[in-house]
Amino acid sequence: MTRAIRTVGLTKRYDATAVVDRLDLDIATGEVFGLLGPNGAGKTTTILMLLGLTEPSSGSMEILGLDPLRHPLDVKRRVGYLPDAVGFYDDLTGRQNLRFTARLNRIDDMDGRIEALLEEVGLESAADQPAGEYSRGMKQRLGLADALVKDPSILILDEPTTAIDPEGVAEILDLIRRLAVEEQVTVLLSSHLLNQVQAVCDRVAIFVAGSVVAQGAPHDLAAEQVGHVRVEFRFADDVDRARARLDQIEVVEDVTLGSVPNSLIATLDVGTLPGTVNDLVAGGAQIVGVRRVDDDLDAIYRRYFEKREEVTA
Amino acid sequence: MTTQAVRKRRKESETPVGGWRVVAAKELADHLYSGRFVVLLAVLGIATAAAVFAASGGIREVAQEAEEVTALFLKLFTVTTDPVPFPLIIFVSLLAPLLGIMFAFDSVNGERAQGTLPRLLSQPIHRDEVILGKFVAGLGVISVMLAALVMLVAGIGIFRLGVTPSLAEISRLIVWLVFAIVYVAFWQGLATLVSVRTNRAATSALIPIGIWLVLALFGTFIFSAVADLISPDDGAPGAALANAETEHLISQISPINLFQEGSTVLLDPEVRTTGLLTLEQVDRAIVSELNLTQSLGVVWPQMVALLAMTAALFALAYVSFMRQEVRA
Question: What is the CATH number of the domain that holds A186?
């Protein structure tokens, strides 16, 4: 497996504050890598550094084996970029906007490619409308086509799913996945909507306040958690009795109502979960479902985020 | 998708030149289709036509009496006649800055506001090609408009006066046209610089327009006030002359004054200096014409000064753009 993106100790400071703090990334060719974190965590700054659009304060990076500061054009020729809140020339049509990008990339015979891309992102019927009339979601789709015009080896997407309806999100994630698998395009995407993108990412890095707090495959990250977990129990009926029962069990802390009717969320040590289930059954509770709530990235994210808030408080 | 084919085709055409041309072509198309192009062309065209009609009417009256008037055709640009209070070159010096400002005030912050700047800068072109492309396109439109206006004047002049311009007059006009383009480029450079430095298009339109209005309307008062401070006319022998010379010197920082003086010399072969002449100096001087080379010699300082100011503004705009964060 070859390496597509690598950063070592990448740091960006504005005045005294480090917006990105000693970032180490190692992304393989054909991998879909998610840079996840809240707004202002330094995701966009990282992306701008990788594109050579912002100079890092210290550290080094390699894109396809090239330093983007020394070989900016070679890097930009091979990296497609969809910026956050992407904009287009309002007076030009979607198609004309893409043609401009194609010309800047010196793509001959661009019309066929542009047509195919417009179709791929579902804009073929709006292609000849001025981009100023596009909705936010349509601009996002056009932005994706724009990033793909140059037929990139690496695709960098900053918040690709914001402002797109759920159905559109699924389509876009599907397209990303297909590019990675079929064309071996390496994808680096940033998002603050974790549950949306975790399905498509091979690996993610969770980014809080400029540093990576966790990195790995989404399910590995979830498994890393030991100690207290939150578990949602669903019952066939009579939640109150089950709640009384749960409150009696010593290892269980903090019982709250769950997300669906007839359910409870309890915080307990992961080792005591089987015993707790047995106790509930022995007490006559009719359990129809047990689910670890902390199993998704959202929870991990929340956990790190809470930790940071404790520090700052 | 024919990925391999695209990759191969691109390799063949990988030449490291010309990104600015793509930018310039797009900007040029934008300008030509824009409303402001049509409006400016209409306003300047109508104003110029009106002024030149008046001027040519005045010249017809003068020409009937004066047999000896040479370079009659160029008088269209320099003569003052009744309904219009100043000659055409002054009119151009006052209104042409608007051209430069209009085609540049939102050139960079417009990209910022539309959110197209990060996308543009992530394409395989150098950052300087963006600003160069915009500059070339703006200058192209400005040149075309100025050339069209000069031809409009010439056309009306030929029609109204029945005089065709001589070769010498045509060469003077061409040199003056180049000078006028540099003059408008100065304002274009100023507007570009402001558009790099400010985030809002309204602000970046107001700043150069403000500078233009202050210099055009109050320039004379300001320069004479400053001259009075530095070298007051206290009645001492030579003080009045010193005061006037100081004022003239200070006024040279204004591109409007530089352009007006340069234009007068370029378009009027009889003018032999831009500075002051005392009565002793003109006493019994023989009225004769300078040829173009001699006129150029007289206005060389003005032309070089204007060119240098324009170049300096562009250099500043360029440097600040190169150093700027993409997200500012």
Answer: 3.40.50.300
* Interface with chain A: mutation pick from B109, B117, B123, B321, highest number of A CBs within 10 Å: B123
Question: Among all residues of chain A, which has the CA nearest to that of B133?
Answer: A104
Residue B262: which of B77, B86, B135, B98 has the closest Cα? B77
Digit-coded pLDDT (tens) for B119-175: 999 999 998 899 999 999 999 999 999 999 889 888 888 888 777 888 888 898 999
Nearest CA in chain A to B26: A100
- B184 and B146 Cβ atoms separated by less than 8 Å: yes
Q: How many domains does chain B have?
A: 1
B132 touches chain A (CB under 8 A): no
* Chain B nearest C-alpha distance from A203 (Å): 25
Same domain? A103 vs A137: yes
Surface-to-core class of residue B275, CB atoms within 10 Å of its CB (0-12 exposed, 13-18 middle, 19+ buried): exposed
When CB atoms are compared, the residue of B1, B3, B115 closest to A86 is B115
Q: Judge: A85–B119 Cβ closer than 8 Å, yes or no.
A: no
| Assigned token pair, B140 | 């192209």
Domain final residue, candidates A173, A202, A218: A218
Query: Which structural domain, as residue segments, surrounds residue B233?
Result: 19-276+285-323
Contact predicate A59/A10, CB 8 Å: yes
Q: Which of these three, A163, A191, A218, is where a domain ends?
A: A218
Tokens 């959110």, residue located = B115
Parallel/antiparallel/unpaired status of strands A203-208 and A154-158:
unpaired
Q: What is the pTM of this model?
A: 0.82
Amino acid A25 reads L
Residue B10 located in a structural domain: no
A189 plus A131 within the same structural domain: yes
Chain A nearest-CA distance from B310, in A, is 28
Statement to judge: residues A134 and A209 lie in one domain: yes
Whether residue B51 lies inside any domain: the answer is yes
Q: Is the ipTM of this complex over 0.85?
A: no
What would you measure as the largest C-alpha separation in chain A, in angstroms? Answer: 74
Chain A residues touching residue B327 (CB < 8 angstroms): 44, 48
- Report the distance separating Cα B5 and Cα B3, nearest Å: 5
Q: Mind giving me the DSSP string for A2-23?
A: -EEEEEEEEEEEETTEEEEEEE
Domain count along chain A: 2
Residue A280 CB coordination number (10 Å): 22
Q: How many angstroms separate the CA atoms of A25 and A157, rounded?
A: 16
Q: Mark whether A185 and A42 lie in a shared domain.
A: yes
Q: A158 - beta bridge partners?
A: A190
For residue A250, what are the domain limits?
Answer: 225-312
List all residues of chain B from 6 to 65 with a beta carbon under 8 Å from chain A.
6-7, 9-10, 13-16, 18-19, 22-23, 25-26, 30, 33-34
What separation in angstroms does the CA of A244 have from each of A239, A248, A261, A280, A305?
9, 6, 17, 10, 32
Residue with tokens 């022995």: A282
Q: For B144-148, which contacts have Cβ atoms below 8 Å and span 24 or more sequence positions?
A: B145/B40, B145/B41, B145/B44, B145/B99, B146/B96, B146/B99, B146/B177, B146/B180, B146/B181, B146/B184, B147/B177, B148/B41, B148/B45
Tell me: the pLDDT tens digits for A12-57?
Answer: 998 888 899 999 999 999 999 999 888 888 899 999 999 999 999 9
